[in-house]
Design a protein that fits this description.
Keywords: Coiled coil, Lyase, Membrane, Transmembrane, Transmembrane helix. The protein has 1070 residues and is mostly beta strands. The protein is 9% helix and 37% strand.
Length: 1070
């Protein structure tokens, strides 16, 4: 036996065997036993004369060419600086261990993860990237034991990763408990090694050969002396030719908190030097955007750059010329929307060497131009409110979307007295002499002519109160429970142009998906704004109560001018009516499934384990069920599997639901429902056609083969690619309107890797970049903690790495700089995501924490075009001049919802001008209070609810981890003059069938006195309808249709009004 001296620590050499593994995953071929014996003799002789163990082929041929760039033995040969050689981590521990471990009694790096619910990361970034024709990473690794999976389905693991300067993970060595070590390059297929012992030291040599475009991995078990060698191609691997960062990464599986201790020693990074004038890297270029039809087949018309920056071996960055650009994947088609990849050949230069044959690379996004849309939209009345303010009574009212560019103005009356001298173009007024109880009228003028009048009685408070009918509590085997008011949504349930509220009542024993509780049933109430109860729904005992359950949709799905209510139901879900506006338990309106099976389909932990799972849609006005169908994603994929397809067998990952609304056909809203986001992820789109629920499409990552584990606790919807149809932004996964993957944040094509996350924002965040953008935070410490990306392509525009679970994030416009700002729970420095950043690149402040900037909801409140910040029951504002945050509004005697999430029951523009209301329950849940601003504003804008991105945001706001809505157009003080001049552009709206909407359209269209007869017929039809005389109302519409055909209105207006009249007649005559 021979004593070895290996890089600073001693071990004992035993009989040595060496295995050579060929290229490829499945092409491994060990040397024959006969040859092994002969070769072993040679190796033994070499060991006798050497202190360095087995001599490999590359040791002789290449190691003498390498120059050491970085080295550490973690303190054996001198003081270790910086601490832990610069490795950093969060929620884990790094230390220097000098105790004996498997023959190593020298100093070594110890990395310990204890009972962590997320993956943890230790990171070392080199002062300067390593560059060379060949680069060699050597280190000793003791993998260490991972905690056992126990009853959980999957084992935990850990990885050693090498990254380049662009953030690409180039090399990964994976160790999963009870499995052999395996490695992979980039996202390529993994190669399994013959080593599996976690309780021994391995010496690893990873050589990157840029001339031959491959990587050679040599692994030696230092105890047994066994050696294996592998070679893999770098083809298809995103790699900029540098080595910049090494990481140790913990991999935690579902429900199995991770415990792991691993060790590193003797890290040495070397390179074969190259001349300073060698081009080592061509950095990735940002996407180049053009619009379909605006270029030609001549590539020169695209506007690709003539020069690109390159990095030389000296670390100098210079610009070089491009000889020619060519597509690599498909021929350029100027008319065809999509992403095209181009490569540029670098022009020869006598002063430069391009020995690696580097090329420039750029993606061209041939984008569709913004479409002209005419989506089904709710008609809303004037929504006048009059609230007590410090300076009197503050009155505000709505401007509808189709009134924005019209000659629409207003007069204000108090108790019959006109208050304004000239008609008002804005939609708010402060009456300094006003008092509570006064009657205010808002008179609308169209082209100077009186159109309608709305009135309201001035309130004595700065809020409106909705009395609630709190359900009685009860008890389960878990114990007693009571109810409290929770999340809500709004819709015009009865078609009168005023919103009603659907409120969720949550029992006090509600649970998260990780818990085991027999909960009380969730209850929903539908209220008019005066507190009149319309109906009550008891979800029953076959559905668990908690924040991950009972996501619901309120939307006009059939275009009848009244919103429906859609939700996942089960046997014994029951709807009760009201008598004189009071809950009546004797008035059963609807029962879903088999009432006798109430509570049959849950286990002792309160989780749904089987039985029928439904989706039902209900009449929003009456509570009567319209249709019920089987839910597309039952808990069990195969009977008896215990929900394992979702990622665990204890019903945590299966009990994760999402919902929203999207115009997937570009015209009418559909309901989106999802299950799962930690692993398997499923979404389904439901439309309501002729009184029946229809599955438009079903998406399942099990069928798609990708996209799993990228979902959020929330979603957002909007037309990100300008095709006129809405996409579903489900965290790091974006689905196209047809239910296929538009893109995933997968580390390819300029998209930095994403993961599951807790916060998500979708909106028009950059005035210089047309379209919708996405900001989100991620839970996986191995990916970007904060990430800002293009909504259509997924191109990462800005990102910050804190190597931690970033649980909060916000996008809002809070400064005078063009574009929104964003911030989130990243690291403690600006470099690691702890600052406040403008989307166009500026750093606003180093630390959002130091100035107390909230990370929750954003709102429009005080009258300027900036956002204010709503958190809990307070509203704050960022002061750009002082870099401070000031509270400007506190709501008293009310409470926020959902614990630390601290969100309102609802934030939405449901009354008054374009600014938003904040709705909260009182502490005893006896009432809801609707708070609205009493601060005047000079800006005239249409109601936010007529912007479909915002309106859909209100529909999905209740989903799991509530997020604030955003608008589809850009607002900010930098576009102040455009707003004041009324030059913003808004899409057309098509009001759903409604007599008041038809009358409104006539008033806006023409002042011709011939239209009086048309308006008269609509008014007569309304009177008959109010008295229940649908046949007479239908006859008035027959006359209306005849006169309409003879009118001189534009054909498009006539067609729209005719369609609405026919639809109304059909609904009345059913």
């Amino acid at each position: 036996m021979n004593t070895l001296s290996k890089e600073g620590w001693k071990g004992t050499a035993v009989e040595t065997s060496i295995s050579f593994i060929g290229k490829g995953v499945d092409e491994g071929l060990r040397i024959s036993n006969y040859f092994n014996k002969s070769f072993l003799l040679i190796v033994v002789l070499l060991l006798v004369f050497s202190n360095f163990g087995p001599v490999l082929a590359e040791d002789v041929s290449t190691e003498d060419k390498f120059e050491q760039v970085y080295f550490t033995d973690f303190g054996d040969s001198g003081e270790l600086t910086p601490e832990n050689w610069g490795f950093t981590t969060s929620a884990a521990t790094l230390s220097i261990n000098e105790e004996e471990l498997a023959g190593n009694n020298t100093a070594k790096l110890q990395y310990t993860i204890v009972d962590q619910s997320g993956g943890r990361v230790a990171t070392k970034t080199f002062d300067e990237p390593v560059r060379g024709t060949q680069m060699l990473v050597e280190y000793d690794w003791y993998p260490g034991e991972h905690n056992d999976k126990g009853t959980h389905p999957n084992e935990n693991g850990g990885e050693f990763r090498i990254l380049d300067s662009a953030g690409n993970t180039v090399f990964t060595l994976n160790h999963t408990k009870n499995a052999p070590l395996k490695y992979f390059l980039g996202n390529n297929e993994a190669t399994t090694t013959g080593f599996s012992d976690p309780h021994t030291w391995y010496n690893l040599k990873i050589m990157f050969d840029l001339l031959n475009n491959n990587v050679t991995l040599t692994m030696e078990n230092k105890e047994s002396g066994e050696i294996e060698t592998y070679e893999s191609s770098l083809d298809g691997v995103s790699f900029d030719g540098t080595l910049s960062t090494i990481r140790l990464v913990g991999i935690r599986t579902s429900g199995n908190n991770h415990t792991w201790t691993t060790y590193l020693d003797n890290i040495k990074i070397s390179q074969v030097p190259i001349a300073d004038n060698v081009i080592t890297n061509v950095p990735s270029l940002p996407y180049h955007r053009v619009y379909a039809g605006e270029t030609t087949e001549n590539i020169d018309t695209i506007g690709l750059p003539d020069t690109v920056p390159v990095v030389l071996a000296s670390n100098e960055i210079i610009n070089v010329a491009i000889n020619e650009w060519k597509t690599t994947d498909r021929k350029w088609n100027p008319e065809q929307e999509g992403i095209y990849h181009f490569e540029g050949t670098i022009a020869e230069d006598d002063e430069l060497e391009n020995i690696f044959s580097r090329k420039a690379s750029i993606y061209v996004y041939n984008r569709l131009t913004p479409p002209d849309t005419n989506r089904d939209t709710e008609w809303l009345n004037r929504g006048v409110i009059a609230l007590k303010a410090e300076d009197g009574i503050f009155i505000s009212w709505r401007l509808l979307a189709d009134e924005y560019d019209k000659d629409v103005s207003f007069n204000i009356y108090r108790d019959g007295r006109k208050l304004n001298d000239e008609p008002l173009s804005i939609t708010n007024y402060m009456d300094e002499a006003g008092e509570a109880g006064a009657t205010y009228k808002v008179e609308t003028l169209v082209n100077g002519k009186k159109a309608d009048i709305s009135d309201v009685t001035a309130a004595s408070k700065d809020y409106l109160s909705i009395p609630l009918q709190k359900p009685e509590g009860g008890s389960t085997v878990t114990g007693e429970y009571t109810y409290s008011a929770n999340d809500a949504s709004v819709g015009d349930l009865d078609g009168d142009g005023e919103y009603e509220i659907i409120l969720l009542w949550r029992p006090s024993n509600a649970m998260t998906a990780l818990e085991d509780v027999i909960t009380g049933p969730t209850i929903f109430d539908a209220y008019e704004l005066d507190g009149t109860l319309m109906w009550r729904m008891n979800m029953g005992m076959n559905l668990t109560s908690g924040p991950q359950y009972h996501q619901f949709v309120v939307a006009d799905m059939d275009g009848n001018g009244k919103s429906e209510f859609l939700i996942k139901t089960a046997d014994a879900t029951k709807v009760y009516g009201a008598t004189d506006g009071v809950y009546d338990p004797e008035k059963v309106i609807s029962v879903i499934g088999n009432e006798e099976d109430d509570g049959r389909w849950i286990n002792d932990g309160g989780h749904v384990v089987g039985g029928p799972e439904y989706v039902s849609v209900f009449n929003g006005e009456t509570g009567e069920v319209i249709d019920t169908i089987d839910f597309a994603f039952p808990v069990e994929k195969e009977e008896g599997d215990g929900g394992i397809s979702w990622g665990d067998n204890f019903y945590n990952r299966s009990d994760r639901f999402l919902s929203g609304v999207a115009y997937i056909n570009g015209k009418t809203p559909s309901a989106i429902y999802g299950r799962g986001y930690y692993g398997r992820t499923g979404f389904v789109s439901y439309s309501l056609k002729d009184g029946q629920l229809v599955e438009d499409w079903v998406f399942d990552t099990d069928e798609a083969g990708r996209g799993e584990g990228l979902g959020n606790h929330n979603l957002a919807t909007g037309d990100v690619d300008n095709d006129g149809f809405d996409e579903i932004v489900a965290g790091s996964l974006t689905l196209d309107h047809d239910g296929t993957i538009l893109y995933a944040m997968d580390g390819e094509m300029g998209r930095e890797k994403g993961s599951h996350g807790d916060a998500l924002h979708l909106g028009a965040f950059d005035p210089d970049r047309e379209g919708l953008h996405v900001f989100g935070v991620h839970e996986d410490p191995g990916v970007a903690s904060l990430q800002y990306r293009d909504g259509a392509t997924g191109e990462t525009l800005r990102s910050f790495y804190a190597f931690k679970d970033a649980g909060r994030g916000v996008a809002a416009n809070i400064t005078s700089n063009p574009g929104y700002e964003f911030w989130g729970a990243g690291g403690g420095t600006a470099e690691t995501g702890g600052g406040v950043y403008n989307v166009q690149g500026d750093l606003i402040t180093d630390s959002f924490r130091d100035i107390g900037l909230p990370v929750n909801f954003v709102t429009y409140w005080d009258g300027d075009l900036f956002h204010e910040l709503l958190d809990g029951t307070t509203i704050s504002k960022y002061d750009e001049e002082t870099n401070q945050v000031n509270v400007i509004e506190s709501f008293e005697n009310v409470v926020s919802n959902n614990g630390t999430k601290a969100n309102p029951t609802l934030q939405a523009d449901i009354l008054g001008d374009w600014r938003e209301e904040a709705i909260y329950p009182t502490e005893d849940s006896s009432e809801l209070r609707i708070f609205s601003t009493t601060i005047p504003t000079e800006y005239r804008l249409p109601t936010l609810m007529h912007d479909t991105v915002y309106r859909m945001g209100i529909a999905w706001q209740n989903t799991t981890y509530n997020q604030p809505p955003h608008i589809s157009y850009y607002l900010g003080e930098d576009v102040r003059e455009d707003v004041l001049n009324g030059t913003l552009e808004f899409p057309d709206v098509d009001y759903t069938a409604n007599l008041n909407a038809m009358k409104h359209t006539l008033e806006l269209t023409s002042n011709d006195k011939k239209l009086n007869v048309l308006q008269n017929k609509l008014e007569q039809a309304q009177r008959h309808l109010n008295n229940g005389r649908t046949m007479q109302a239908s006859k008035q519409l027959d006359v209306f249709i005849k006169h309409l055909a003879k009118s001189d209105l534009e054909e498009s207006v006539k067609d729209s009004l005719n369609e609405d009249a026919v639809k109304l007649k059909d609904m009345w005559n059913r």
